[in-house]
Amino acid sequence: MAMISKTLVFTYIYLLIYIILSSGVILYNKWVLSPKYFNFPFPITLTMIHMAFSGIVSFFLVRVFKVVSPVKMTFEIYATCVIPISAFFAASLWFGNTAYLYISVAFIQMLKALMPVATFIMAVLCGTDKARCDVFLNMLVVSVGVVVSSYGEIHFNVVGTVYQVTGIFAEALRLVLTQVLLQKKGLTLNPITSLYYIAPCSFVFLFVPWYLLEKPGMEVSQIQFNFWIFFSNALCALALNFSIFLVIGRTGAVTIRVAGVLKDWILIALSTVIFPESTITGMNIIGYAIALCGVVMYNYLKVRDVRASSQLPEAAPERMVKDWKLDKKASDIYVPNNGGDGSTANILSSSDAADEEAQPLVASSRLSHVGRTQASNHGG
Fold it and tell me: Are 333 and 223 in contact (CB under 8 A)?
């Protein structure tokens, strides 16, 4: 009994750390980018700092300290998998971070309710999911909720909304591509190895829009570059990456989804206190509540599908173990809100991957052994 309570305590500590870091990174990014506060209106530059920092740290962990082993990466896998995934990952972070310049944190969190809709549309287009009536109705509920919430937004800005929604669709396409490309190759990467391969590639993709869009502006304006602010900001983003991995490794689908919803409500409330200009209306709340109902129903359907797909007659103890494992596997259904929070945590998760099981972050050779991927898929 003492053992169970100790495990529970650690699980709740990890969940609390995840909620604090995730909310903190989003609010920190908004504060850095906002013209009213730190006034560093260069979202691509900020994202490039995160990518460079993550790439350097993961290089040291993989090559110098050898915490995990690198996977057997061929040029073919790099060209067909890593490059397209990195491109959409860079795009989702770029658009997501740019939205902070135009719309409030609260409204951004409300728009993020569209994530399951975008993922479902992309999955159907790519042929990894079938168009189903029940899921379509859920998507309709979510979309109506977001439209109502947008209608109630006092400081509605078309440019910011388009940036955020484009970022959400880029993220959805990356998730589906990850599922289609990497899983077919039998390749699994944990957060450290995924950062090792994807962060430098995303940095290169971000360099082109940075050179064209932000470099001229940075030469003209007198920007204040505070090393400690950018260092701590990148460190928070990296810590968030590992915290999500630890949470997925210790909790099931239901817990992590509840934590995600709780985090969104905390963020919406906190952002109105920290940034007084982001006013919330009753229409905002009603719309967001409608959207959340759709998201919860969608997640319920997905968990039910995962469970139904492997309900074979078996002894009670085995069934209990299997249910627990399925709950952990289904945790991937919840997509952490990483559009624009600088987190690279969900690089290699997919919205509907029932065949991936998260492992706790430990210094073990099992973490990235490609040779064992066919036998036991483990993802971040």
Answer: no
Contacts of 188 (CB under 8 A, 6+ apart): 182, 348, 356, 368, 370, 373, 377, 378, 379
Q: How far is CA 73 from CA 26, 29, 39, 120, in A?
A: 33, 33, 41, 30
Quote the pLDDT of residue 253: 58
CB neighbour list of residue 58: distance below 8 Å, 6 or more residues apart: 192, 193, 195, 196, 199
Residue with tokens 């740290």: 57
Q: What is the pLDDT of residues 221-251, one digit of tens each?
A: 777 788 999 999 999 999 988 887 778 777 7
- Residue 104 CA, chain-centre distance (Å), reads 19
CB half-sphere exposure, 191, CA atoms < 13 A: 26
- Compute the half-sphere exposure of residue 283: CA atoms within 13 Å on the CB side of its CA: 13
CB contact set of 191 (below 8 Å; sequence gap of 6+):
241, 242, 244, 245, 344, 345, 347, 348, 361, 380
- Eight-class DSSP state of 61: I
Quote the DSSP letter at residue 78: I
Q: How many residues does the chain have?
A: 380
For 232, residues 6+ apart whose C-beta sits below 8 A from its C-beta are none
pLDDT, tens digit, 9 for 90 and up, residues 113-158: 999 999 999 999 988 888 889 899 999 999 999 999 999 998 899 9
Residue 302 to residues 15, 99, 120, 129, 307, Cα–Cα distance (Å) = 22, 30, 11, 11, 9
Cα–Cα distance for residue pair 88/77, rounded to 1 Å: 16
Q: Which two tokens stand for residue 354?
A: 């029932």
pTM above 0.90, yes or no: no
Interacting residues of 152 by C-beta distance below 8 A, sequence separation 6+: 281, 282, 283, 284, 286, 287
The tokens for 356 are 């991936």
Task: Say how far apart CA 96 and CA 339 lie, in whole Å.
Answer: 5
What type of residue is 66? K
Specify burial of residue 315 (Cβ count, 10 A radius: 0-12, 13-18, 19+): exposed
